[in-house]
Design brief:
With about 425 residues, the protein is of the alpha/beta class. The strands form two sheets. It has a seven-stranded mixed beta sheet, sandwiched between helices.
């Protein structure tokens, strides 16, 4: 049932529906919807790469540029075997709204390569990364479109991409990509920025729901960068991480799981499943455990209607993009679960990417303490903006609806003043 529901969901159509509903709720003209319902540009390329065995393999690659009314396009690039054009377009839309919520001067973009990085050698990954830039360089630039890491990409891949772009331009222009290594103008704290942002919103949401963080029970789906650091930072705040799952399965212990030890187990075995002292779970069973806070940190459409029915948590902070389906949203709304939406909860990554971009442009770099302080301030302000906006709306307005309405108003005002619609 869960698998069938997820397969029939088109994330691009979901994003469009959310925009249309926000336009209707806000009373704005449908011209605003027409501007925002589709990306300004979608680039699709076939990228030939010489493999280690000497043969050529062709990969399909994408770059979606949604809307740049607030600034240059900005968004990550993911490597995943099931990615398609509609997913990339949806993610670019969410980035536009995320930047508007976070008050950073960027528009939304997103990129992807349809591949399984686990089946590629380091040399093949490097050639693929460089070829992507070769094919996309004309539409990229620090004032055009800025890349960043996403699912299955990291600082090393960003370094290869940035180096290739600089070779093409024949001068260093590191601001074209964020999430780079420190040696190439990267920003201290960037690796943990998305997770820190999630935790700052959890802190604020816990205040709203009157949940004391010391002793609060947490479940996390996904144990990559965002999932691990979210769990670790919440553990450091006194929370008890009771359940974690990844693509290989899950681990559950009502008395708590040591996050660092669990990561070591995952590195050794490939999954959190089978961690000593825990009971095994299926990937989605993590949502049904008895807990106070859930952090979805995997892929889209994980919390379906069926999954939502079994959720007992009072707060969900979406570390992943689009983890909750519209049908599930309605169920969670009825259950009075405070869902901190992705365009708010996980915007810590784009905020610190903005800091990196600013530092690259100024050639002046802040300390990690300064970065964390600035991030906490912007995340707390963003949560307050959205929660206060929610409270000013109808009683049944959710945080997601409030976030879309708030971001929509900022985008619509900017488009109107620029003369994009009357």
């Amino acid at each position: 049932m869960q698998t069938r529901e997820k397969k029939k969901i088109n994330t691009y159509h979901v994003a469009q529906q959310r925009i249309k509903r926000a336009v209707e709720q806000s009373g704005l003209t449908m011209d605003v919807y027409e501007w925002l319902k589709a990306p300004d540009r979608l680039v699709e390329a076939s990228i030939p790469v010489e493999m280690d065995n000497g043969r050529i393999q062709v990969f399909t690659a994408y770059r979606a540029q949604h809307n740049n009314v607030l600034g240059p396009y900005k968004g990550g690039i993911r490597f995943h075997p099931e990615v398609d054009a509609d997913e990339v377009k949806a993610l670019s839309i969410w980035m536009t709204f995320k930047c508007a919520v976070a008050h950073v001067p960027f528009g939304g973009g997103k990129g992807a390569i349809c591949c399984n990085p686990r089946q590629l050698s380091v040399n093949e990954l490097e050639r693929l990364s460089r070829e992507y830039i070769q094919h996309m360089a004309l539409v990229l630039g620090p004032e055009k479109d800025i890349l960043a890491p996403d699912v299955n990409t990291n600082a090393q891949i960003m370094a290869w991409m940035a180096d290739e772009y600089c070779r093409i331009k024949q001068h260093n222009d590191f601001g074209v990509i964020t999430g780079k290594p420190l040696e190439m103008g990267g920003c201290v704290g960037r690796e943990t920025a998305t997770a820190r942002g999630v935790v700052y919103t959890v802190i604020e949401a816990a205040k709203v729901k009157e949940i004391p963080l010391p002793g609060a029970r947490v479940a996390v789906q996904g144990y990559g960068n965002v999932g691990y650091f979210s769990a670790l930072f919440l553990e450091q705040k006194g929370c008890k991480v009771v359940a974690v799952s990844d693509s290989g399965g899950g681990a559950y212990n009502p008395n708590g799981i040591n996050c660092r030890d669990l990561l070591l187990h995952k590195k050794l075995t490939g999954s959190v499943k089978g961690f000593p002292g825990t009971d095994n779970l299926d990937n989605l069973e993590v949502y049904a455990v008895d807990c106070d806070i859930i952090v979805p940190a995997a892929l889209e459409n994980q919390i379906t209607a069926e999954v939502a029915k079994g959720i007992n948590a009072r707060v969900i902070a979406e570390g992943a993009n689009g983890p909750t389906t519209p049908q599930a949203d309605e169920i969670l709304k009825e259950k009075d679960v405070l869902v901190v939406p992705d365009i708010l909860a996980n915007c810590g990554g784009v905020i610190v990417s903005y800091f990196e971009w600013v530092q690259n442009n100024y050639r002046y770099y802040w300390t990690e303490k300064e970065i964390e302080s600035r991030l906490e301030l912007k995340m707390t302000e963003a949560f307050d903006h959205i929660y206060n906006y929610k409270c000013s709306c109808e009683d049944n307005t959710t945080m997601r609806e409030a976030a879309f309405l708030y971001a929509l108003r900022r985008l619509a005002d900017a488009m109107k003043v620029r003369g994009w619609y009357k």
